[in-house]
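The instructor's notes for this session suggest beginning with a concrete chain rather than abstract definitions. Hand out the sequence below and ask the class to guess, before any prediction is shown, which regions might be ordered.
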Amino acid sequence: MVEVLFIRAIVLLIVSALCATLQYTCDKNVVPCGCGRTTVGINARIVNGENSIPDSWPMMVSLRDNREPSRHICGGTILSESYVLTAAHCVTDRFTGITVENISIAAGVHSISQADQIIRQVDKIIIHPLWKELYREIQYDIAILQLADPLDLGPNSSISRTCLPPRQNTREDIMQYPSNGTSLVVIGWGQLETYGEIPDILQQVTVRSIHHFDKICANSIHDPSVQFCAGLYEGGKGEK
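After discussion, reveal the predicted structure:
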């Protein structure tokens, strides 16, 4: 399943540029996915991340545990009007206690605490059938959330579905995607330091993909047909 390009974070491909700030723009009236109301601007030399520009990542959502007090638990990305992609470990009952009765998503969110949020309840949680967590390894960490009510993804909406990568037809093609050294962006509200608090504002950081033959990837990925390596030279743990 080639669409599996994010496990612990949502990873989007962007265009590389030899300048201090990278910019990614698109016209929502022409491109059917991934376009926000504002241009994505990323400091090309950042390591630890930075605040994103409001309305620049319209496909990103915040998953909420609605038990008192309501709290952000994970990020997700919009696949269509009725489906959101996230990580299985975020919504598995035996790990989190999450059920369809106590989970919702907030779309159109830049700051977790902002007042204007597009809220949808979750009607069904679909866990990848091969998902499992082993010692030092998580496999097929994928879940799809079916929303009780569809989102409005029209041209005037503040939200948009994510752009899926092209289908790869052979194992060899899958293992070469994304190509070595591709510039990637990780976005989310993850902790900025170990045991630290989650940030209120959506964060973004640039990393580069690494070929699975590189020895630095040996302890991070175990099956390059369903995992890829990125961010280790920037000090990360390795995206899968």
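Then share the key points. Residues 153 and 160 are 6 Å apart (CA to CA). The chain has a mean pLDDT of 83.
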